[in-house]
Amino acid sequence: MTELTSGSSSVRRSLLTRCVKRVIDLLVAVALIIVTAPILFLAALCTVVTSGLPVLYRQQRVGLHERPFTLYKMRTMRSSTGSEIELLTDADRLTRTGRLIRRLSIDELPQLWNVLRGDMSLVGPRPLLDLHLPLYTTEQRRRHLVRPGLTGLAQVAGRREMPFSQRFALDVRYVDTWTLWLDITLLFRTLVQVMKGSGAIKDEDISKVDDIGLTTVVKSRGE
């Protein structure tokens, strides 16, 4: 009886902590949307002037319990329509305005809407494309036991120069060790990185960090 009561208390504490995390997500997301609204407006205006519409880029990603959702980002590259454009690499398609927007991580700000919707959290494993799913091990799939986040352990520990398998290991570590204090720490470290403009390596050569076979899957799908 004692063990059952103790277990129930642990569950209640866990649920309460997760509710607090969700409340923090909502409050911080609303505050950030208000504070960054002028920045988003200016970035959107520059995008329209330099490369036209649309301003936002939408893409299907995998979220909590492997459910798909639409992720929002600011568009930073030229459209891929047209034979000449399609032959360009992502680095070549990146506009001058888009390069600055990415360097300052402004392109990630529309994901605050995903946080408000409940698709994402401020902190958690980064949401990835569905083409990753067949490549996960059973252990790696545990990264989907929590909501994906704007930032996470992998993002502050090494970001895009880190092999995929190491990123996934850090994602699972986050799932197993999550606390509100860990979230606060990761948010602070992310803020420091953004202010320094460090770590956000955008022109990534996936083949250099792909140790799970993603490049082969992408080529087989013609993407």
What's the SSE blueprint?
Blueprint: H1 2-51, E1 56-62, E2 68-74, H2 83-86, H3 90-93, H4 96-103, H5 111-117, E3 121-123, E4 149-151, H6 153-157, H7 164-177, H8 180-196, H9 206-209, H10 214-220
Parallel strand pairs: 3-4
Antiparallel strand pairs: 1-2
Helix pairs in contact: 1-5
List the defining traits of the structure above.
10 helices; about 220 residues; disordered N terminus; two-stranded parallel ribbon
Total discrete domains: 1
The radius of gyration computed from the alpha-carbon positions, rounded to a whole number of angstroms, is 19 Å
- Model regions low in confidence, pLDDT < 50 over at least 5 residues: 1-7, 82-88
Category by helix and strand content = mainly alpha
How is the largest sheet built, in terms of strand order?
1-2
Strand proportion, as a percent range, falls in 5-15%
Q: Characterize the main sheet.
A: 2 strands, antiparallel
DSSP strand count: 4
Helix count from the secondary structure assignment: 10
Order of helices and strands: HEEHHHHEEHHHHH
The portion of residues assigned to helices is 40-55%
Distance, first to last CA: 57 Å
* Chain-averaged pLDDT: 81
| Overall spatial form | globular
Quick gist of this model?
The chain is mainly alpha-helical and 223 residues long.
Task: Describe the 3D structure.
With 223 residues, this protein is mainly alpha-helical. The protein has one domain (17-220). 54% of the residues lie in helices and 9% in strands. It has 10 helices and 4 strands. It has helices at 2-51, 83-86, 90-93, 96-103, 111-117, 153-157, 164-177, 180-196, 206-209, 214-220, and strands at residues 56-62, 68-74, 121-123, 149-151. A two-stranded antiparallel ribbon has the order 1-2. β1 (56-62) and β2 (68-74) form a beta hairpin. α1 packs antiparallel against α5. The N and C termini lie far apart (57 Å). Mean pLDDT is 81; it is low at 1-7 and 82-88.
